[in-house]
Amino acid sequence: MSSLVVAGLSAAPAVGLIVWWLIESRKRMRHSVAPGYHGELEFPHDEPFELYHNALSLCSMKTRVCLAELGIAYKSHHIDLIETGAYENIRPKLLDVNPGGTVPVLLHHGHPIYESHEQIRYAAKCAPADAPSLVPGEPALREEMEQWVDRSSLTTDPLKNAEKSAGNAVPGLTLPLFCTMIEKISYWRIAEGLLFHFDKMRPMMFMLLKLRGIGKLAGMAPVAKLIGRSRRALDVHLDALEARLEKSGGPWILGDSFTLADVSWLVIFERLRQANTEDVFLSGTLRPQTTAYWERLKSRPSYVEAILSHSHPLIEFGRSRIGKAKAESPALRECLEGSAANG
Ligand SMILES: N[C@@H](CCC(=O)N[C@@H](CS)C(=O)NCC(=O)O)C(=O)O
User: Fold this and answer.
1) Which of 102, 151, 198, 315 to mutate to test the pocket of ligand 1 (most atoms within 8 A of CB)?
2) Looking at residue 217, what DSSP letter applies?
3) What is the pLDDT of residue 343?
4) What's the distance, CA 208 to chain centroid?
5) Does domain 36-125 have CATH number 3.40.30.10?
6) Which residue has the least CA distance to atom 2 on ligand 1?
7) Which residue owns the Cα nearest ligand 1 atom 15?
8) Ligand 1-lining residues (CB < 6 angstroms)
9) Does domain 139-337 bear CATH number 1.20.1050.10?
10) pLDDT band at residue 9 using 50, 70 and 90 as cut-offs
11) Strand pairing report for 36-37 and 111-114
12) Which ranges in the chain are annotated with CATH 1.20.1050.10?
């Protein structure tokens, strides 16, 4: 056999892999989609409402809570994100309905609505006649409700925009939860993201968090800085909420009526609970109005239906793992909770 043939044969697996990667990457090509309802698109469906969502995703929780409050039944398509076990969001099942590769996606008669804040507005508009109204009739209150929805939304590039909304402050505070949940996910699964995720920074971050582990989180200066910045930003958003609740006298943000503003904030508090950082922001003496408000939110049937009944074992594992790690390491506790000196 000539040396040329031998070289050709030994290169074949590598060439095969590259060709496979190119074909797969093409199949998983992503493009962003405009927020809101898309009547021009129609996807296969069995039920009037269908929801592509994930147990942990903040935005998915918001849409689920809204649908539960409105009594809207839907067909559920759970899509794993890497935190809950696999990169299903960059596979055809989700990419076919959302080329943006994110959850949640709400379908109404097969037509998609993109972005959770748009989904809750849409659902509130086309809710059955006997459903409670989640939007105030009075224009001034409606406008204020929109501001509270925006202030809790997750927008583009959240890590750089924590000061703009509480929703943007949450991903930074979720890093410890990501770090503990990812302990249980194999490197192979994260590798799928390195190969095909449109934003390589995300799988790289998960890889790094897994390699370092929660015990070394405080020693990762950029991560510690991000957590501190997110915590300070959330403090400002929560102070504003505390003041509003004091003014309205509760029980809800705008007073007597439970609205989309409350739907949107419920999930912020749930994320703080999941990330075992609730006490840092709420206690009997620190923000008493907001603390009582969160207790009221948890007592709504929608909390059980849309949050607790969708809980994922890895979330509770991650939560308790953070608690143990904080108890073992004062440096980690200070990094996650701040100190009198650094806030
Ligand atoms: N602004 C969008 C955010 C959508 C989004 O970023 N979803 C996250 C989960 S909360 C996601 O699907 N991430 C998957 C990934 O980036 O791998 C919304 O409100 O729906």
Assistant:
1) 102
2) G
3) 55
4) 20
5) yes
6) 115
7) 102
8) 57-59, 81, 89, 102-104, 115-117, 154, 202
9) yes
10) confident
11) antiparallel
12) 139-337
